[in-house]
Predict the structure of 7,8-dihydroneopterin aldolase.
Amino acid sequence: MDKVFVTGLRTDALIGVYEWEHEQRQPLLFDLEMDWDQRAAAASDAIADALDYDALSQAVKQLVEARPRQLIETVAEEVAQLILTEFSVTRVCVRVEKPQALTIATTVGVQIERSRP
Ligand SMILES: Nc1nc2c(c(=O)[nH]1)N=C([C@H](O)[C@@H](O)CO)CN2
């Protein structure tokens, strides 16, 4: 299957289980990979037939930055559902990194894959 991907999408989120994390924004980085048949877009050369990675990235950033959450699992799930429902995508892989979470590790994160029936 063809793919559209976005790597290193940066957001500034209120994210974490600790009190200070609800007041101080910190970066969450997203890698997104979507199934998308490219043939119609390639034939028409029209953005209307493409999965618009610009619109998709802006929507993800807006969702993530809109409200505080405790777990990166929650964010990953919400992002996956947004992409499936708002962008007519049938399968998405969402990887979330929280690079400032631990001083003893370069980064931590979760990765999920979700499909629409
Ligand atoms: N599986 C998870 N473990 C932890 C999370 C999380 O979101 N998912 N969050 C934290 C804290 O917020 C931590 O990142 C603060 O440094 C701990 N474990």
The longest helix spans residues 72-86. The CA atoms of residues 76 and 94 lie 6 Å apart. The mean pLDDT is 97. The chain is about 30% helix and 30% strand.
